[in-house]
User: What shape does this take?
Amino acid sequence: MGNQLVLVRHGQSEWNKLNLFTGWHDVALTNEGIKEAKAGGRALEGDGIKFDAAYTSALKRAQDTLTIILKELGQVELPFTKDPALNERDYGELTGLNKDDARIRWGNEQVHIWRRSFDVSPPGGESLKDTTARTLPYYRTQILPDVLAGKVTIIVAHGNSLRSIVMEIEQLSGDEIVQRELVTGVPIIYEIDAMGRPLSKRDLTT
Assistant: This one.
């Protein structure tokens, strides 16, 4: 068995529900998002997982998801580290806009490029490549050493910061990672080797 690392995308947020570009804006979970976080925690409990280390972003929706998961596991006393390196990508001028309204303003093709290209950033914002450039150094220097020391570790973050980490673990290209969808609240469990590469991967669908 390798070292265990669990990734969880935060539960549905208020702006997810409204189909808005959220980025670094600090919004709360919806009732559905709370349910998703509880279900993810119960799935981890059913799998017999207990954590030794926990990391999340500087944003409330990820922190609240982690707190709910730890409560379901009976680990409310486990300290966790919060860092903006794990924040969602910054959508710049798109932040707060309805995605359909953005398509009307800039066109379907342009919005698709901003959302699904690896290295094209929206006005005033970050591309996935930019997000990767801040997320991966933190993962490599702060989180991975815990995992390789045998600590069962959880990261609760966002679609794009987690894509960056998945890209690193699975050694995916930019074109491959932009196609990867991460379901809100569903834990992904990796067993990784001493080089940080995956021995196994499974989703705890709830």
In short: Residues 1 and 27 are 38 Å apart (CA to CA). The longest helix spans residues 128-148. The domain at 3-35+52-136+145-154+171-203 is CATH 3.40.50.1240 (Rossmann fold).
